[in-house]
Amino acid sequence: MNRRPVCLLCIGLMIILWILKAAGAPVFGEPAFPEEIRKKLEDGCVTKVTGEVVSRRKGDRSIQYILNNSTATVCGKKIHISKLNMTMSTDAGFSDDLRTEPKTLLSLGSKIRATGNLQLIAPPSNPGEFDRKTYFAAQNIFLSIYADDVQVETEGGGLTERMQCLRETMTERLTELMHPEQAGVLSAMLLGDRSLLPEEVKTNYSYGGVMHILAISGLHIVMLGMLLYGVLERLFLWRTSVAFRRKGKRIAALLSWLVMGLYTVFTGMPIPAVRAWIMYGIMLLAEAAEKSYDPVCALSAAAIILLLSNPNCLFYEGFQLSFAAVAGISVIYPALLSCVSTSFWRKGSKKKRLLEKLIEASLAYLAVSLATLPLVAWYFFQIPLWSFAVNLLLVPAMTVVMALGTAGLSLAMVSPALGRLLLVPVDLILQLYTVVTGLVRWLPSSMWICGRPDFRQLVFYYLLLLGWVFYRNLIAGRNMESGEDGSSGRAADDGRKGWISRLVKKNGVEGIVFLLLIFFFAFRSSPSFSVTMLDVGQGDCCLIRTEEGAAFMVDGGSSNVKQVGTYRIIPYLKEQGIGYLDGIFISHGDEDHVGGVEELLLAIQERTTSIRVGRLWMPAWMKGDEKGQRLAAECREAGIPVSYVAGGKTVISGKTRIRVLHPFASGGEQEGNAGSMVLEVGHGKFRGLFTGDLEKEGEKEVLSYIRKVSLLKVAHHGSAYSTSEEFLARTGRPVSLISAPKHSRYHHPHRETLQRLQKAGIRYFCTKDCGAIRAIPRGKKLEIREYLRGDSF
Questions:
Q1: Does residue 140 have a pLDDT over 90?
Q2: Phi, psi for residue 492 in degrees, rounded to 5
Q3: Which of 74, 246, 376, 687 could pair with 709 in a Cys bridge, judged by C-beta atoms 3.0 to 4.6 Å apart?
Q4: At the top level of its lineage, which domain of life is listed (predicted)?
């Protein structure tokens, strides 16, 4: 390391940035607005903005634009916004001063005026939820607007628009010449355009552990770049004098680097591609200057350049995974190679050499896996268990796919018929990719939902891994000086024993290290009993976790958050490492209580998630209800048993008892909100009450069964028609949780309900202010954690 000052500088810069981030230092580009304006932008405000369109990306239902040098008026004051994310519906049209017919796409370079809801990009409100704030911060974007009306002041055009149109035309050409699924995959690989990728393909690739294939990454830049450099080098060095060879190599290197730079810009400049382009340039520079290339120093230089241009990159998952993967190849892979005796390599028959290639590829992928595994668990909460085999099978064919795909697409822009000839084998290979990953998806235990590891586990894991690498380098250095075999501290065997037995005997230290790595990575402490209310907007979803590790969900839906199950509930379950839900309780059949549950059932049926559910409980009256029958049918399709319950039913899991208080087996309210299932959850001295959307009529029925409780889930999102004074008096003074969104169209929670809670001296917490809320019994008291305030979950 003392011979690599660039590495030390890079590590020092990362540590400084991490400390500054933890301290809240204003060095990360986030605009410092006055408090009045910031509060207005956090809530969102309708205003007009102006700016220049510099980027366009199509989606299924919307189009995203990036505006540069924007201005807006907020609270009567004009503010400047360096970069702004603008979203428009695909159905929206607009016009300019020169055209009467509406247009559907804004040209890059256009100067526009848009009206819509402008707001600061908010952090996630639940554990596991996609972090839009960090994602956009890595692009220096902190505000977004959903535009309802757009006027073009100056029409754009120029080189950037031509490049964007070419990219979109290429995508359309692929759909004409290939099967739709394979066209979407190749478009993602070559052009960075995922708009054509079916969700089915994404799921298959995720289960196969080859999602990196679907992104413009270092793998793509290196493959295409080296192919280009090889062609140009042969072109310039063909039949040339010795004196011209050095100059020809430099010209080939410069042209290759410039072309790949243009390609990086063409594909949208994703961070992994920019990193690869910088390293590619350093490698070509070393090649042209006939100097040795140090990938570790090149990696450090690329990191420094990216972090100085935008420090927020350090906290973006794409940056971390990209650099970790390259660090694995540059640092861990040589250490793994040194574990194999040097007497083994490059000796023997063709079959032996084939085995050597397989071992090298296996060790390379193992190195990348060791470097990235904790980060994959930290950001995605699940590990594809067959990824090692799938990558060994599919990645070697990537060179053919990239070469033929690039040539075929380029040729297809001139002659579709000739381009099709080259794209046919690519189509067949990508069909094989889909078949293999699809088969893996349906294999038992193909995905391990590991949950997010503790940060201390990551620290111990990487310290142990780096310590082992240092040990291997130390051993290799000593052996090099003494002329001994690099696979151990002893001299090489005389060859009388088999190489496998020698490998096992000589690497006992490695075995111990890898066992410790697995332990640090896989260890999970036993959970405490807790109740968590998720922020699902206008809806309800609560999770009960027992000391024994069992998990129960009470309702799960939303009427204002689209695909709440896919984007909030399922990610939370995975983040918590919950691969098995012991049961789901449905209070009643309204969409804001069951919509997310139905998404989960469909995901289980189609195997887009590895989460499993033990049983679903519904009120007895829902057996004849249309929504209840629909839920029961969906459960049958997913292989989940259904039980219909009434007051008196008790579910016991370890020390936890869940008792149904309402509705009754006969008589009383038997439908709708008033017929909501009411649950009393007991654990030691803790007692919690979950009331669904119970209203006054239902409250009166259940009043005589209510005891003093520690925690109350306030009924019907804090509606004025629920949670009466008489009902609160029976519950004692419990900590109360309310599930309601900002700007609720029903104005939940109602002022009358909050006044009743305050009058009773009850502490209450609402998801619109706190995000997800967790209650943990601590003796006779409850510890309340609020996700938006940074409390640990």
A1: yes
A2: -65, 150
A3: 687
A4: Bacteria
pLDDT digits (tens, 9 = 90+) for 611-622: 999 999 999 999
Residue type, 472: R
Q: What is the reported pLDDT for 496?
A: 42
Q: What is the rounded CA–CA span in Å between residue 405 and residue 399?
A: 10
Identify whether the C-beta of residue 578 lies closer than 8 Å to the C-beta of residue 612.
no
Burial 610-644 (b: 16+ CB within 10 A, else e): bbebebbbbbbbbeebebbeebbebbeebebebeb
Termini Cα distance of the chain: 38
661, 689, 641: which is closest to 544 by C-alpha? 689
Pairing status of strand 764-766 against strand 580-581: unpaired
Q: What is the mean pLDDT of residues 731-751?
A: 96
Peptide bond into 749 cis (omega under 30): yes
Q: How many secondary structure helices (H) and strands (E) does the chain include? A: 27, 25
Q: Is the pLDDT of residue 277 over 70?
A: yes
d(CA 176, CA 171): 9
Beta bridge partners of 686: 683
The Cα 237–Cα 241 span in angstroms is 8
Residue 62, token pair as written in the block: 């919307």
* Averaged confidence pLDDT in the chain: 90
In angstroms, the CA 495 to CA 341 distance is: 10
* Range list of β-strands (E), 561-705: 580-581, 583-585, 612-613, 616-619, 642-645, 650-653, 656-662, 678-683, 686-690
- Mean pLDDT over residues 719-735, rounded? 95
What Cα–Cα distance (Å) separates residue 574 from each residue in 383, 583, 693, 791?
A: 11, 16, 27, 19
DSSP element (H, E) containing 220: helix 218-237
Cα–Cα dist 401/10, whole Å: 35
Residue 663: CB partners within 8 Å, gap ≥ 6?
A: 619, 620, 621, 646, 647, 669, 670, 675, 676, 677, 698
pLDDT (0 to 100) of residue 767: 98
328: which DSSP letter? I
CA-nearest of 378, 397, 480 to 436 is: 397
CB 84 within 8 A of CB 116: no
The yes-or-no verdict on residue 361 having pLDDT over 80 is yes
CA 295 to chain centroid, in Å, comes to 28
Say if residues 177 and 187 touch (Cβ distance below 8 Å): no
State the pLDDT at residue 490.
38
Q: Are 87 and 119 in contact (CB under 8 A)?
A: no
pLDDT at 103 over 80: no
Torsion 449-450-452-458 (CA) sign: negative
Please state the length of the chain: 793
Prior bond of 663 cis (ω within 30°) = yes
- Contacts for 42 with CB less than 8 Å, ≥ 6 apart: 119, 120, 122
Strand 530-533 to strand 773-778: parallel, antiparallel, or no bridges (unpaired)? antiparallel
Q: What one-character-per-residue DSSP string does 406-463 give?
A: HHHHHHHTT-HHHHHHHHHHHHHHHHHHHHHHHHHHTSTT-EEE--PPPHHHHHHHHH
Indicate the SS3 state at residue 648.
coil
pLDDT at 489 over 50: no
* Cα atoms found within 13 Å of the Cα of residue 255, Cβ hemisphere only: 15
Q: Residues 516-574: pLDDT tens digits?
A: 888 878 888 888 999 999 999 999 999 999 999 999 999 999 999 999 999 999 999 99
Q: What is the torsional sign of CA 193, 196, 201, 207?
A: positive
The span from the CA of 432 to the CA of 385, in Å, is 20
Question: What is the percent of the chain where pLDDT is above 90?
Answer: 73
